[in-house]
Design brief:
By secondary structure, the chain is an alpha/beta fold. It has 14 helices and twelve strands. Keywords: Transferase.
Length: 347
C-alpha cells in the first residue's frame, strides 16, 4: 500500500500552540504507522495572507502531482477556496479543521461573513474533513453544508503519565493559552483581582508573539491591578508539564475553543477547572471536574475561583473527578490511528 501524504500548513509548525501541537503529534504518529509525509509550508499571515503569500501558497499547492493525497490545515485551507475548487478533481484534498475561521473572536461582521463563505466553498471541494471535536463536526454539518459522512472526529490525545503533585503553601492557579484575545486572560486577571483577599499565586503560560498588542495590554493590566507580586506572565515554556504538576487549580477564560487541549491536559493531571461555557469546553470538562461560567463574566469567574480556593474539600472532589475523566481520554497514538484509517479509506 502506498502510504504517502503531503501535509500543507501555514506559519511556523514549531509554535507552541494547541493547533500546531496537534499537527506535530499527528504527523509523528502517522510516521510511526508507516506514512511517508512531505511537509509543504504555505507562508505566514494566514488567515489574513498578503497577496504575495497567497500566490506563493497557491503556486506551491498547484505543483503537487495529480492524484496526491493532500492534508491541509484549516487555518490556511479556509481562505484558499478558489484554489481548492480548481484542483478538487485532480488531487485528493483532506481538510484538517481545528475550528471554523468565522468563529475566531475579534472579527468584524464583514470578516466573519467572508470567512464563513470562503470556508464553506473550500470545504465543498475537499474529499473529506477531519475535525478535532464533536462540536466542530456539528457546526460544519449544520452551518457549512458538510455531510456528516464526510467528517471524521479525531480528538486530541494526551500523553498519559503518572500524576506528580507538589504540595504548595498557597494554592497555585495555572492558566495555559496564547496571549491572544480569544483566550480571555483579561477576564481571568479581573477575576483574580476579585479574590485578592485570599492566599494564592498564579502563572499564565502562553506565547506573547502571536498578538503583541494583547500581550502588552495584559502586562499593563497586571500592573494596573497591582498583581505583579502574585501573577507571572511566563510566555512560552519548554516543559509545561512541570507547571501542571505543581498547580492546584487550572483556570482559563477562553471566549471560544474548538476543543481545548489544555483542558484535557488539566484533567489528566487531576486539576479542578474553572472555565467558560465557550465552544467545545462543556464537551471536554465534566461538570463534576470543573465549574463553568458565562463568557466574559469576570465576577462569576472570580466567585468560582473563590469556591475552590476556600474549600480544599471541593478541590479534592473535583480533582478526583478530573483524574477519572482524564483516564478515559485518548492517547496521541489513538488520534493518529483514527486519522490513518481515514486516509487509508480515501487513498
Amino acid at each position: 500500500m502506498n502510504r504517502s501524504l503531503v501535509f500543507a500548513y501555514p506559519g511556523d509548525l514549531s509554535l507552541k500552540t494547541g493547533g500546531y501541537g496537534y499537527d506535530r503529534q499527528v504527523l509523528d504518529g502517522l510516521r510511526k504507522l508507516g506514512w511517508q509525509i512531505t511537509l509543504l509550508p504555505l507562508g505566514e499571515g494566514f488567515p489574513f495572507p498578503t497577496a504575495d503569500t497567497r500566490r506563493g501558497a497557491e503556486t506551491a499547492l498547484s505543483s503537487i502531482p495529480d492524484g496526491t493525497l493532500v492534508l491541509i490545515d484549516g487555518l490556511a485551507f479556509g481562505v484558499l477556496d478558489a484554489w481548492a475548487g480548481a484542483h478538487a478533481e485532480r488531487l485528493q484534498i483532506i481538510a484538517l479543521v481545528h475550528h471554523p475561521l468565522a468563529l475566531e473572536t475579534g472579527l468584524s461582521d464583514e470578516q466573519q461573513q467572508h470567512f464563513r463563505q470562503s470556508e464553506q466553498r473550500a470545504l465543498a471541494a475537499a474529499r473529506h474533513v477531519i475535525v478535532t471535536s464533536p462540536m466542530t463536526a456539528r457546526e460544519l454539518a449544520s452551518n457549512y453544508g458538510v455531510a456528516s459522512s464526510r467528517i471524521t472526529v479525531a480528538l486530541p490525545g494526551i500523553d498519559k503519565s503518572d500524576v506528580r503533585r507538589v504540595v504548595n503553601a498557597a494554592p497555585q492557579i495555572l492558566s495555559v493559552g496564547t496571549l491572544t484575545r480569544r483566550k480571555g486572560h483579561d477576564v481571568l486577571l479581573r477575576a483574580l483581582k476579585s479574590v485578592e483577599d485570599l492566599d494564592w499565586q498564579a502563572v499564565i503560560i502562553g506565547s506573547k508573539s502571536l498578538d503583541p498588542s494583547t500581550s502588552e495590554a495584559l502586562a499593563r493590566q497586571v500592573e494596573t491591578l497591582g498583581l505583579e507580586a502574585r501573577v507571572q506572565l511566563l510566555g512560552e515554556v519548554d516543559d509545561p508539564q512541570v507547571h501542571f504538576a505543581s498547580a492546584d487549580i487550572f483556570a482559563l477564560a477562553s471566549r471560544y475553543e474548538g476543543y481545548g487541549m489544555v483542558f484535557a491536559e488539566a484533567l489528566s493531571h487531576g486539576l479542578p477547572i474553572v472555565a467558560c461555557h465557550a465552544g467545545a469546553v462543556p464537551d471536554v470538562v465534566p461538570s463534576d471536574a470543573g465549574i463553568l461560567v458565562p463568557v466574559d463574566d469576570a465576577p462569576a469567574f472570580g466567585e468560582a475561583l473563590r469556591r475552590l480556593l476556600q474549600s480544599p474539600r471541593e478541590r479534592e472532589m473535583r480533582s478526583a473527578a478530573a483524574l477519572q475523566a482524564g483516564s478515559l481520554l485518548p492517547t496521541w497514538a489513538d488520534t493518529a490511528a483514527i486519522i490513518s484509517n481515514t486516509l487509508d479509506g480515501i487513498s
